[in-house]
Design brief:
The complex is a heterotrimer.
Chain A lengths: L6 H29 L9 H9 L1 H28 L5 H24 L3
Chain B lengths: L19 H32 L1 H11 L2 H28 L3 E2 L2 E2 L2 H23 L1
Antiparallel strand pairs in B: 1-2
Chain C lengths: L3 E10 L9 E10 L4 H12 L18 E4 L2 E4 L11 E6 L5 E3 L2 E2 L2 H9 L21 H8 L9 H5 L1 H5 L6 H11 L7 H8 L13 H5 L6 H21 L6
Parallel strand pairs in C: 1-5
Antiparallel strand pairs in C: 1-2, 3-4, 3-5, 6-7
The chains are: A mainly alpha, B mainly alpha, C alpha+beta.
């Protein structure tokens, strides 16, 4: 029985799960407000852009997005396995590639915001 | 030794219907789909933000409408269920021993809920 | 005079010498209110059907022998009180184990897996008797005491859906017992146990359903132990791969 390499993804899963547990509900609520046009003066391009232009803002945004993506990818992999989709390696590859694409996209988006 | 043991098969796709605790577990796991989808939405929003005010406005406009609201409501329910189920099991995964005693689970869970409230307030105030 | 109730006890029977498949058989048992399901089973065996086979021993929830599925829930027969149930009680062998005969299951898989985690003290270094006893503070004892309470009843294996879906999974009790020794200040065998419990079929098959802890009659909380093993194994992994020079 060789030792597994699962710790890599599990560490990300656990860290991401903690971050999403604290932050995601509020973020979703904000997005819901935006979708419902709650306060039309909210979400001004300038204020959000300013937050993302700040280096600390970039770190926070990148950290939250990356950890959330990898948490969701790993958990969804297990979920599909529990639903009877047994091709674990295929599922894992697809989901982790999606998470990687999201991570890279966020990285370059943040890089180009001054 | 066994003469002719009988093996009861476990149905691979419907096993979780057998007990309410399994259903709650699957509900908890399914939250990952919504959290992942929502985060991908944020990734797209971030990209539009980087592309300029018009692109970002069209992103916001696309959010508005029944589908967008529906998704956000579903994602909100999922996110809250994830948070509560995550906090409630934290004492099991990370027990804190002080001398001979362990910190009461309720204290650890309560602290998490308190931090959750504070963080949520900060995020909401910053957004609004 | 204690109250009596007529209970319909529906038991899954299986005779490997004559049956192709298990079948249910219902017995009408006059139960005293203070009885447990095990008492009802013994009434059947003594008065109605001596062929009914089931394991039991202490009748006080310390030996771990009388685990069955009672109304679909893994329970000890000696801890399932008749007054908690209606007039119809269904008793089946513990889930996720092959049926040997009636309520008797084949437990070889559990025994093998349990033994594989080296569930015994492996001293850090050889100590002669003359060096005296191992000293342990109450705080050091509390670090692992909870996990010593396991009575090997296998209810957790019956509850664990991952064990049901992936029979190679080491399972809750085995990994918790490894954790019990890893947490013991007298022990130095963690590295050896890691080879077994940090494998794919070890702790990483667990998805923290938590059913094991819910059904454990001794409140061992195997789910908690397994998550702690995951955390420790993850820290291990990063140490091994990022700082391979650091010796434990």
């Amino acid at each position: 029985m060789a030792k597994s390499n699962k710790p890599i993804v599990w560490g990300l899963f656990a860290a991401g799960g903690t971050v999403t547990a604290f932050i995601t509900p509020a973020l979703v609520l904000l997005t819901l407000f935006a979708a419902m046009r709650f306060a039309p003066t909210m979400f001004t391009y300038e204020s959000i852009h300013a937050f993302a232009a700040n280096w600390l803002g970039k770190v926070i945004i990148f950290g939250v997005i990356t950890l959330s993506l990898w948490h969701a990818a790993h958990r969804f992999r297990v979920t599909l396995y529990d639903f009877g989709v047994r091709a674990d390696l295929v599922v894992a590859t697809i989901l982790y590639i999606i998470a990687a694409i999201g991570t890279i996209s966020a990285f370059f988006s943040l890089l180009s915001i001054h | 030794m066994s003469s002719k043991p009988y093996i009861r098969e476990v149905p691979k796709t419907s096993w979780f219907f057998r007990q309410p605790r399994y259903m709650r577990y699957m509900a908890r796991e399914v939250t990952s789909f919504f959290i992942g989808a929502f985060t991908l939405l944020l990734v797209v929003g971030l990209k539009r933000l980087a592309e300029g005010p018009e692109a970002f406005q069209s992103f916001l406009d696309a959010l508005r409408g029944p589908l967008g609201v529906l998704f956000c409501v579903a994602a909100l329910v999922a996110a809250i269920y994830h948070s509560t189920s995550w906090f409630n099991v934290t004492p099991q995964a990370m027990p804190i021993q002080r001398g001979e005693e362990f910190l009461p689970g309720k204290m650890i869970v309560g602290a998490h809920y308190a931090i959750w409230a504070v963080v949520s307030l900060i995020v909401l105030i910053m957004g609004i | 005079m204690s109250e009596e109730r007529q209970i319909q006890l529906e038991v899954l029977r299986y005779n490997p010498e004559t049956d192709l498949e298990p079948r249910y058989q219902t017995y009408t048992v006059p139960c005293v209110n203070e009885w447990v399901v095990l008492d009802a089973l013994n009434y059947v065996k003594e008065n109605l059907d001596p062929t009914l086979s089931f394991r039991w021993s202490c009748h006080m929830a310390v030996c771990g022998s009388c685990g069955y599925m009672i109304n679909g829930e893994p329970k000890l027969g000696c801890k399932a009180f008749i007054h908690e149930y209606g007039d119809h009680i269904r008793v089946e062998p513990l889930a996720h184990f092959p049926i040997e005969r009636d309520l008797v299951t084949v437990v070889e898989d559990f025994i093998t897996k349990f033994a594989s985690v080296k569930p015994y003290l492996i001293p850090k270094e050889e100590k002669p008797i003359s060096a005296g006893e191992y000293k342990q503070t109450p705080a050091q004892l509390m670090k692992f005491k909870q996990y010593t309470l396991c009575i090997n009843c296998m209810l957790c294996y019956a509850a664990c859906p991952q064990y049901g879906l992936v029979p190679e999974f080491l399972g809750p009790a085995a990994i918790s017992m490894a954790h019990r020794y890893n947490q013991d200040s007298r022990d130095g065998g963690r590295d050896q146990r890691q080879e077994v419990i940090a494998s794919h079929e070890g702790v990483w098959e667990c998805s923290f359903v938590g059913a094991c802890s819910e059904v454990c009659p001794k409140h061992v909380d195997p789910a908690g132990a397994l998550q702690q093993v995951k955390v420790a194994s993850t820290i291990d992994w990063y140490q091994e791969h990022l700082m391979p020079w650091s010796k434990k």
